[in-house]
Design goal:
By secondary structure, the chain is an alpha+beta fold. The chain contains five helices and six strands; from the N terminus they run ααββββββααα. A three-stranded antiparallel beta sheet has the order 1-6-3, with helices on one face. A hairpin with a 5-residue loop joins β4 and β5.
């Protein structure tokens, strides 16, 4: 599976022909080049995709930012940070540590936190379509079709149809991705939820 394959599947959904390569000088190829990377990144950012999750040790920076104990380098191919985790611990949804992201004067992103020796759990910018799971690719194809529908066909009906297919595919993809993990969530009874302290 290549980006060209993804684009051709999207183009077929809106009856907009085929391309041999995204580098060719045709309008469908130009539109695919224009939309593909941004659309892929938007989908990666929307959810904690299992195939795109990465965890690495944070690299301490020499920068200082008032109000925070530690400043760490932002991972190079990070789409979205999910959590900062103290060394030796694992991700726990109910025990999130505080962090923030700052941009410095030289347009470099940093993560700030009061957690020493931490790891960063994040969504990695996966570009290899063979690494993406098939349901994510299906969602990407449908989103690309909705992005390409108006510029290539001018048909708002095709846009609506492709966007609805995308919404259904993204829900299916999120559901399947969630089934690949099991997290113990704390149980809070309805009695405790209703009771005011």
């Amino acid at each position: 599976m290549t980006p060209t394959d993804v684009c051709n599947q999207a183009l077929s959904l809106i009856n907009a022909g085929r391309i041999r390569s995204m580098t060719e000088e045709t309008e469908p190829a130009r539109q695919c080049r224009l939309h593909y990377d941004l659309t892929r990144k938007v989908l990666l950012e929307q959810y904690e995709w299992n195939f795109a999750r990465k965890r690495e040790r944070a690299v301490l920076s020499e920068h200082k930012i008032d109000g925070w104990g530690y400043v760490y380098a932002y991972p190079e191919k990070c789409v979205r940070i999910l959590a900062v985790i103290p060394q030796g611990e694992r991700y726990r949804a109910e025990k999130q540590r505080e962090y923030d992201v700052y941009l410095t004067d030289n347009n470099t992103k940093y993560i700030v936190s009061d957690v020493p020796l931490m790891h960063i759990d994040y969504v990695y910018d996966v570009t290899d379509a063979d690494v993406m799971n098939p349901i994510f690719v299906k969602a990407l194809v449908c989103k690309m079709a909705s992005d390409l529908a108006m510029p290539l066909t001018g048909n708002s009906g095709l846009f609506d149809q492709a966007y609805k297919l995308y919404q259904a595919a993204i829900q299916e993809a999120k559901s399947m991705s969630a089934k690949e993990r099991r997290l113990d969530m704390p149980y809070v009874s309805n009695y405790l939820k209703a009771r005011s302290w």
